[in-house]
Design goal:
By secondary structure, this protein is mostly beta strands. The radius of gyration is 20 Å and the shape is globular. It folds into 2 domains: 172 residues, Jelly Rolls (Sandwich); 79 residues, Sandwich (Immunoglobulin-like). The protein has a 5-stranded antiparallel beta sheet, with no helix packed on it. A 4-stranded antiparallel beta sheet has the order 1-16-17-20, with no helix packed on it. Strands 3-14-6-11 form a 4-stranded antiparallel beta sheet, with no helix packed on it. 0% of the residues lie in helices and 38% in strands. It starts with 5 loop residues before the first strand and ends with a strand. It has no helices and 22 strands.
Length: 273
Amino acid sequence: MTSILIFLLCISTADPWADDSPGISYGKGAGFGQDFYPVNILGPPDPNATSTYPSSSESELLTLGKYGWIVLEFIDNTVIDDVGPDFSVFENVFQFGSSYFRECAFVEVSQDGISWVMFPWDSQTLEGLAGVWPTTGDDPTNPYVSGGDQFDLADIGLSWIRFVRLTDCGDDVQDGGLFDLDAVVAVNWQETEVFNQNDLVCYPNPVNECLSIHVWISGTIRLYSINGRLTYTSQIPEGVYEIETAGFTQGVYILRFSTLTGLDYSIPLTIAR
């Protein structure tokens, strides 16, 4: 097979939804939604959820379990501090009469996925926690009508973040049970900077056995199926990196490379036989 050098061209795919989940640890009582992870917690919240008829499908929710935690990453955009709330977290809180059934989580954020800052919280009022207010079914990017729980980076002194970590409150908060994540949505955000043409090369494309990737900066490679499911991820150093593709199903994928500094690149990739 002849190897043809392909220079990657940028495809703008930025949106307000979380793009990946680079880390998770389930606690006691977890299990619901795991067969659909991570697709069920990426993208927008359940479009059919309302304050009185919450999301209830495993394809839309993930139960973390007692003290379980999950990290979500924004890749094609950066959440920034601007006027009002900067991001929202959606859980399947529901209202019955004048009361609410709530399952809460602590909220932390990070710029690099290593150092974390937790939003202050109150065990009595539940202020500063996720899983407090129900989804309304209205525009999830408008915090004034969407429901869910809103967070302002100004409250913790950060101007931007790319990672959100949610941890089930366990026995630390008196609530209804285990936190069920639906989605995390950026309200104030900007699209990430893209690479110049010479920053990343790969070959061949189509590929049938081994894909070679050459990068001039360390970062993360992710391979998504055409329906958006994450099928492969790896941290790679600068230099040449190879992916054995013989075990992948034949078809079209999206190859994405991103860095902690916010650079992001995507191209279609065909795996053939």
